[in-house]
Please model this.
Amino acid sequence: MSALTGSMWRKKSGRRSKAKEPKMSLRRRILNFALRWCEKPSLRRADPLDLRERFEKKARFWFRPPRGVTFTGRSFAAPSGQREALWIAPENPKVNSVIFYLHGGAFIFGSPDTHRAMLAKLAQLSGSMACLPRYRLAPEHPFPAGLDDALAAYQDLFEQGYSADQIILGGDSAGGGLALSLLHAIIADGQPLPAGVFCLSPLTDLTFS
Model:
């Protein structure tokens, strides 16, 4: 216990202080402040359509994709008909793999467009392709519409020539929860599992227990 405590706290002048954390950039601190004090309170008053429009505009303002990446829209067959996925290609692909990413947004807003800059950076750093399906959102399309679209987009990767060991599944927030739900669906259908999974602050407990 003392070793664990010692790794988490440092004593200085007889007082306990938290271990030094990495510093955020000025841009990140401003964004964090704006989200906490301006955006979070407004979420209680906004309707889904308003949230989507505002999120799209702010994502374009705050997040810029790196140079050299290519964006392409490609359709795939889903239970609801033809859906679209945003494909991102790095300037110099290094590996024959794809990051299959499900965007966050509380299941009611967000899109591949709001997350394109982040995934473009990830694609550039990893040398991998990235695929962001445009899955249906609530409240117009309640569960399991989004999951059905995600599963259809995952299956389409095999049509594009990828094998399961070339696919990395990821998602953030609601998209992280959707990624885990997709894993359950893949297992239930007896389909091959992706090579890896990463989730950023995934929504995993809707009961908030």
Observations:
- Residues 65-200 form a domain with the Rossmann fold fold (CATH 3.40.50.1820).
- The chain has six helices and eight strands.
- The beta strands are 9-12, 15-18, 70-78, 81-89, 98-102, 129-133, 167-172, 196-200.
